Each structure stands twice: as structure tokens, then as C-alpha cells.
Amino acid sequence: xxxxxxxxxxxxxxxxxxxxxxxxxxxxxxxxxxxxxxxxxxxxxxxxxxxxxxxxxxxxxxxxxxxxxxxxxxxxxxxxxxxxxxxxxxxxxxxxxxxxxxxxxxxxxxxxxxxxxxxxxxxxxxxxxxxxxxxxxxxxxxxxxxxxxxxxxxxxxxxxxxxx
Length: 164
Ligand code: PNS
What we know:
Elements: E1 6-11, H1 18-27, E2 33-39, H2 51-61, E3 69-74, H3 78-85, E4 89-94, H4 98-113, E5 118-123, H5 133-141, H6 152-161
Parallel strand pairs: 1-2, 1-4, 2-3, 4-5
The protein binds 4'-phosphopantetheine.
4'-phosphopantetheine (PNS) binds next to β1 and α4.
């Protein structure tokens, strides 16, 4: 029996990039449904996009997969959120080696908190290996071209934010 038909894909998604999109689509080859779970941290939130903007952008990107991909926000511990949703699977993407230590620590901590929760790592697609939300924001804020790195709706929102 499968351990779970629902996977939780947590992150900041500020904003969602094509690397995230690729990961969601590949996750759907293994799991029936994915919740793109956007962490809300009102105390130290220095995000470019509001929580609602981030949720809306994700839902727009996956409009044709509605029913299988849902965007939602959560507060508090990820392990508690996953339990409330009835999932035992967390998906995270791994890019370069530099991601490993942080991801390893989080996976171990989450496992310690809830031993039934498994973190599944997927390698990011090669064309997204060097992309991150942070770099996309920095390049876009300085007038650089990030087309091809983010979905079209996100590109439009970035252009709106950094209109000069
Ligand atoms: O995209 P990010 O910023 O790398 O995602 C990090 C995220 C949101 C997955 C992580 O910070 C998280 O799970 N936050 C929720 C609070 C929590 O459970 N913290 C303990 C993690 S071991």
C-alpha cells in the first residue's frame, strides 16, 4: 500500500519559479495530489509578495491541474500542518551541493519531531539548477531579464513590482 497519496511541498515560494513548477509536475507522477504549502511567518516576513499574492500566483500556474495541485498557507510547524492534512510525505528540491546541509538538517529535525513523516528529495531539473527565488528577485529588481526562469504570470507581477 502506498504510504500517502498526498504530498506536501513546503517553501516560501516568493515567488514560484520554473524550478518549483518542474518539481510539482514530477511529483504528480508519483503522488496523486500535491499541496504547495506556503509558510507564513508574520513576525519576520520580509517577502516581496504577500501571502495572498503567492497563493494566487501558484493557483494560476496550476489552473489546469486544479484538483491535483492546491496552494495553501500554513503557520507553525510543518510537521503539524502535514499531520492536519493527513499526509506523511514532504517533498523538497535539491539543487547544488550547497542546498544539502540545510535540507539535511531540516529533514532530520522534522523526522525527529514526527518519525512517520518522510522527506523525499528530488533533483532540480538541469535548466533550473542555478535558479532561486532570491536570485530571480535580485536580478529582476536590477532590471535584468528573468523570462524563462519564472512562469509568465510571475514575470508580469515582477515587472509590475519593479516598474521604474
Ligand atoms: O523555501 P524555503 O524558505 O527554503 O522553505 C523553508 C520552509 C518553509 C520549508 C521551512 O522554513 C519550514 O518548514 N518552515 C515552517 C516552520 C517549521 O516547521 N520549522 C522547522 C523546520 S525543521
